[in-house]
Amino acid sequence: MAISRMLHKSISHSIQVNRLSPEARLLFTWMIPHADDEGRIKGEADYIKAVVVPMTDWSFEQIEKYLEEIANSKLINRWRVDEDWFIEFVKWTNYQHIRPERFKDSVLPSYSKKNDTQLATNRQPSDNHLSTQSSQVESSEVESSVVEESAERNISNKSFADLYKKIRIEKKI
Fold first, then answer.
1. In a domain, 119, yes or no
2. Does residue 72 lie in a domain region?
């Protein structure tokens, strides 16, 4: 587990994040440094309370509500395997770049839309610290230089950055 994580300044311009309640926003950002190198964390409300927000007066029920709110906003995938809950940050590799020599495979299961019990990992390639991303940019969703949606098409981070620059130039943002 890393000691620290990057929190990109674009988070303050994110439509998805800003639609959250202030408490859910805080919980979302505070979970980031506790995630493993693949953007996963245990997802039980009592674990989140103990590890992420131990000094708040939030109940387990409130934390559960905030986690559901974050999951409904599609910022995280949250699923259950047997009796255990897990969380995976949807846009993790867009903002977290881990050097290959420091990268540690997750011991937590990977999220799968087809089968929530899948245990495969989405390990970063060892020859390049910039992993391949599934990204699709919707230029109509560009606001304050933030690309809100990414999914479906495989392109590298460098290609994503080039495409993002092109959109910024076309939209003059």
1. no
2. yes
Token pair in block for residue 64 = 């559960």
For the segment 41-77, what is each residue's pLDDT rounded down to a tens digit?
A: 999 999 999 999 999 999 999 999 999 999 999 999 9
Residue that is last in its domain, among 70, 95, 120: 95
Q: Which contacts (CB < 8 Å, 24+ apart) does range 130-133 have?
A: 130/97, 130/156, 130/157, 130/158, 131/93, 131/157, 132/156, 133/93, 133/94, 133/157, 133/160
Nearest one of 72, 87, 66 to 24, comparing CA atoms: 66
In this prediction, residues 22-47 reach a mean pLDDT of 95
Q: Are 28 and 91 in contact (CB under 8 A)?
A: no
DSSP assignment, residue 35? S
Collapse the DSSP code of 49 into the 3-class scheme (helix H, G, I; strand E, B; otherwise coil) and give the result: helix
> Would you say residue 90 lies in a domain?
yes
Look up the domain containing 88 and give its range: 9-95
